[in-house]
Design goal:
The complex is a heterodimer of chains A (112) and B (114). With 112 residues, chain A is mainly beta. Chain A has no helices and eleven strands. Chain A is 0% helix and 54% strand. In chain A, strands 2, 4, 5, 9, 10 and 11 form a six-stranded mixed beta sheet that branches. A five-stranded antiparallel beta sheet of chain A has the order 1-3-8-7-6, with no helix packed on it. In chain B, strand 4 and strand 5 form a beta hairpin. Chain B is globular. The chains are: A mainly beta (112), B mainly beta (114).
Chain lengths: 112, 114
Amino acid sequence: GENVEQHPSTLSVQEGDSAVIKCTYSDSASNYFPWYKQELGKRPQLIIDIRSNVGEKKDQRIAVTLNKTAKHFSLHITETQPEDSAVYFCAANPTGANNLFFGTGTRLTVIP
Amino acid sequence: DSGVTQTPKHLITATGQRVTLRCSPRSGDLSVYWYQQSLDQGLQFLIQYYNGEERAKGNILERFSAQQFPDLHSELNLSSLELGDSALYFCASSTSGTRGETQYFGPGTRLLVL
């Protein structure tokens, strides 16, 4: 099955700086890569997703890049704010499966 | 608010007991997914239903079972509970349950087995 690895497990940045979280996947036929933000005790919320037919997608301060050859994708958050503090999960949707395989999460702390 | 609802929010029970978790998908969504989130295992897929039929199975224990009813709500049944079953259980829904479809998560049920 699909294996999604996520790094780093924790990340602290100063407010206003950028944060980058990286994920790799094993199934080269995976074609859908969502990112979820989860605040403590809350549900995972979709913040951005990318499909394998594009290399980059942007939504205001958030962007995701995908490198299909290297089988990795990254989340970029610019001008970080304290409310960006949460756990971020990447996921992949592999061949023949409708469910998502999640990375192990990155706890982002934005220091005011 | 994703539109997915789950009840109860919290559940405390004892080892050996049986519990039922309930999920109602977003209006118009036909597919429901169940995920388990524990501290050491992250978010793990358990099972998927589409329009009342089981569509995919993940790391679901034999002690666990689920179903989706004609009104599309789903129930996850956990029996012979063990301490290690303590976790957050999330339900997600999507329109048709096909690959690459956005999944919207409910607020979760926190299960504590004592």
